[in-house]
Amino acid sequence: PNSLNGLISLRVLNMSNNRLESLPDGLFASCREIREIYLHNNTLYELSRGLLHRLEQLLVLDLSNNQLSSNQIDDMTFVGLIRLIVLNLSHNALTRIDARTFKDLSFLQILDLRNNSIGFIEDNAFLPLYNLHTLNLAENRIHHITSQLFNGLFGLSKLNLNNNLIVNIDPLAFRNCSDLKELDLSSNAIQYIPEALSELSFLKTLDLGENQISGFSNGSFKNLQQLTGLRLIDNNIGNLTKGMLWDLTGLQVLNLAKNKIQQIERGTFDRNEQLEAIRLDGNFLSDVNGVFQTLAN
Asked: CATH 3.80.10.10 region(s) of the chain?
């Protein structure tokens, strides 16, 4: 515990890429000025309860690529880290996130939780994080997106949920993160265009690739006039008809490769005058006569 004693001016500590399994309580007791701690790529499986307490100047904490479980990360782990901006917990063994885990982290801007085994997130777990702009929950075991899950994330602009087990998304799931610009829902088990998307009027890019979406109707993309990129590769989408894409007046790039499209009705792209690139490879098209005549770009 005394190895850093006397280093009262220490600002940055990098002990990444080692074989650390645990750290002694009180290790940082005299390092009150520390701004950045890098502990990624170790074999940490425990964090003593008071290890990070009162590090009120800490801005960056990287604990990625370790073996930390949800038994180790609880409502006391990050107490008092009132200035923390970046927290990386990716590539660990977390299975759940409780409501009070991040309670003191109101300055946090980037939270990386990808590649864990998170299957349960308590409602309002992200509520204190009103300055968060990037949340990565990719490569976990999330099945359902509830109406309360993203409460408080008013400033969120980028959300990654790819490579989970998502089957349904509550229609009100995104009502409290309506500033979202980028949303990645690829590689899940989604069967329809989520109704919840209609809350995201500032969304720029939407990835729904590698799901089980079989089709969509007029109004599926309502309020998404700002959307410039839509990725729907590798789904089960059938024929395209007039009106289906008409709400997407700002669309520039559309990826519909590897679907089951046999026909595209003339007029399908009539309102998508900004389109610059369309992928339709890997479908069952036999005739596209006149389909693209309105696409000057």
From this structure: 1-141, 170-176+188-296
